[in-house]
């Protein structure tokens, strides 16, 4: 695998709110790629070097010159020094490659890692910490019989891109079905879906209760008990699991029938000084009236003559077209994603955090033929565990999903995209620009 700092997932950054960090990201990768590049994709043409990289901190409130713009890639023997202010609420972020046209291959190769931000407010909650706080990075990979990574290809050798890549090897922190010896007490699990395209539907066997305390951009206002947890690529969840009722048992974290990690609970009781407070951190809902603009943005799929996917688009506009989304710094906008495809797309905006307003079914055929947006159901409020600050939102098929976004932080050029990496690499990504106030 390729890695940041010698391990997959890469080294975890432990940081504090307001404590800026400079990182020199040095590219020491080999000069040829070991996974199948599709030179027909924009940004991955034959005149580009095979191996290129650029690092993006997902969820980071990062100045534009350090955000890892997809075209800011560089080759082996070079480095970039990026500045991360960490002036944002405590959260589990993650860093990964973002190089134009080969991002899916670089991340699949192993270029991802975690970035934790903490602060004194979170410390004062006395959540489980130290060895009782465990990150779980979920991803799937396919392996050849010799143990090497295998990435799927299409039937066309000139266009090997595939619309989705799934693997049969389900990895947690880079290991196949690992186990963890746990004490019968509360644990905090910081979970990332780091897969290219797999969605997880998580639960724990023996009816063990999961209590969600945080999502992408930090703590929820209050804990939410969840039986199942839906996690799209790029999404994070912060969970408390109390093993006290399960002394001597073996529990499994699973996604439907897939076994991901086993918890072996010790039989002897143990003291548990950690807390699960009834309230965590205020998350005031942003009133819709604060939005100065509403943008309607479609999610589109292009099919060829035999109904094979040729790729997805945002607002029917490929990457190279001029920037169309230019919110003003410190203004708030509503973005409504009109999903005309049959897939769920996790849509991620760089730099900002946002709140999910609602989801509503509409008549996609009527919209595509007449342009008229006719709803066929009531607006559905987000689930309780989606009421915190988010940076990635699941946009369901034939549904309008609305988010409200304060564009805070920095003026400059960023991107927004689908976090199914195969989609992102094939035009389901657009630049946007925040104009100075
Ligand atoms: Cu997508």
Question: What is the fold's blueprint, element by element?
Answer:
Layout: E1 10-16, E2 21-26, E3 55-58, E4 79-84, E5 91-97, H1 103-109, E6 112-118, H2 120-123, E7 133-143, E8 149-150, E9 169-172, E10 175-176, E11 179-182, E12 186-193, E13 200-204, E14 210-215, E15 218-226, E16 229-231, E17 236-242, E18 250-255, E19 258-265, E20 293-303, E21 309-314, E22 332-339, E23 345-349, E24 355-361, H3 364-370, E25 392-395, E26 399-406, E27 412-418, H4 421-425, E28 429-434
Parallel strand pairs: 1-6, 7-12, 11-19, 20-22
Antiparallel strand pairs: 2-4, 3-5, 5-6, 7-8, 7-9, 9-10, 12-17, 13-16, 13-18, 14-15, 14-17, 18-19, 20-21, 22-26, 23-25, 23-27, 24-26, 27-28
The structure holds copper (II) ion.
Residues 312, 345, 418, 420, 423, 428 line the site of copper (II) ion.
